[in-house]
Amino acid sequence: MDQLANHRGSRSDAGPTTSAELPHVLHWDEWLSGETGRIAAIVEEVVNLLPAPTVTPGRSPRSDAAQRRRVAAETLVANLVVVILSPMRYASLAVPMASARGSRYDRRAFSREVLRTCVTEMHEAGFLTLTEAVFRQQRTTISPTERFRLLVQKHGVTLGDIGRVRGRETIELWAAGPKHQRKERIEYRDTQETERLRAEMETINAHLSRADIRYGGQPLYPVGHLVRKFRAGGVGEPHGFNLHGRLYGGVWETLPKSQRHLLTIDGEELSDLDFSAMFVRLAYCRQGVQPPAGDLYAIPGLAGFRHALKPVVNSLFFRQKEATRLPAEAREALPGDWTMGRVKVAVAALHPAIVPLFDTNIGMELFAAEAEILVAVLLALFAVGITALNMHDGILVAQSKRKYAMETMRRVSFEKTGFVFEVCEKSVRRPLGE
């Protein structure tokens, strides 16, 4: 399955609750800035301690170059402040060091080249530590030093001093590079469809920016800036906005389940609401057939193996040729006498109506249908003042709002597909022993 599809289950950058867990890495946000004079004071102090820019003899420093340097320094300082003050307990910041081409996705007047220089100079000045990238293993990361932390403390900076520059693109289109190289964002022309999609995201982000979302009792700020990531077949190929389209960017999405009990909305603990067996249900919708009652992943002979079986069943919609081998994780988890062929026969016997969709690579279209339903649910809840946090195929919502939210999810699923989808509720509770 696609890497983006597995995002929810990834824990490679999840926050630690014990020393055995990996450190929580904040991903660089090019659009963060200083909202108050306290950030500006830190930037001024830092810049004054950095080496002066190199100037050709006989020439005066260019004002635009000085401005680019200040913008890069301010954005870097803002991100490092979030690392220090966020209740999410970030250990470091992943920084993109590659050059940007200057597209609709990039912030104007921001230079990656100048950012690289600022990172190096702040490292040499003792404001941050730098861990170089390892090809295909880890990105470049930086961490604030005690010197920088004391600077933040000295100026009395809080998360409320961090702002966000307007203009970040919320509708992204990704394509695989030549010969399946690294995916990249591609340019596209705006249409009525993209303008509608962008307007929806503006409404969602505006609501979330005003919402009372907390982690461990502390305001979760900045809450993130949600974007929808669509897929195209390849660079230069014809494209639309009917593939993938899931939402990303919420800091709550990568939290391990063991930490979700620390999240609150309007001071309330949360309920985790999921569309039951969403992917198989969407496949039935594509065939115009009502799915059977009960758990759609309950394959006879594999009771108790639902967790391992679910991704195998879903993978049948992401193949262009017949699957012959189980993924490594499934081979280890399922009974030894179960092969991919046997699993497929069992799934086909339980769900004959959707067998024609196997091995057709229709999964990205199903993702898009799922995302359209979820966006509509969020908009419907926000319209009546109920805050919900997206979790790809479900939402987190205050417990007092769960019944209304479940009714909304069922209603929207019917409006979008003609079928009422089952919704299951999972309370987000503190782990035993805490």
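That was protein one. Protein two is written in the same sequence-then-structure order:
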Amino acid sequence: MERRELIHWLVATAGLHCLDSLAPADLLALGRDVHRRSRDRALRALSRHAERTVAAAAERILPDADVSAFIDKMLGDWHTPTERERFLAGLPQLDSRCRTRSGRDFVDCTAADQVAVITVLDDEVTALRTDRGAAVANEHWFAMLKYLTVYGWCTSEAGMRALRLYPLPWRYDGCAPA
């Protein structure tokens, strides 16, 4: 998959209406900027437990993603209050489903139990997409988590290295003579 295809896919599946109008290069720049600004910063949208849950879920969605700070920054600064509330209201489903399955919170479950719960949620979003369309499915809190995980990883240095986009293929001559 080419970088532009990936970025177009991210926007198309995002459910983030504010990002729909951005060009692929701008979307990439935004993601990189969010990573830079989310370092060494206190949590804004997520509680400590929610941040641990998001980090564990993101690891099951995309290993070595390390995107919990990115997701917190996006929720706090880019999502509407309604989108943020929907995400935060859905997140406890990971704990409740794991408690039903194994008697423990999501972060304390085995990797196999975490993957099983995430697989069921992903299947529910896929069924919703088939039955009611992408627009409805993209509103689901788990679709938001999955999107933010992939977007965060793709715009991180580790993700860009894995996609062979780092160092960036273009150059910047900020002090070049006119």
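The mean pLDDT is 84. Keep this in mind for the problem set.
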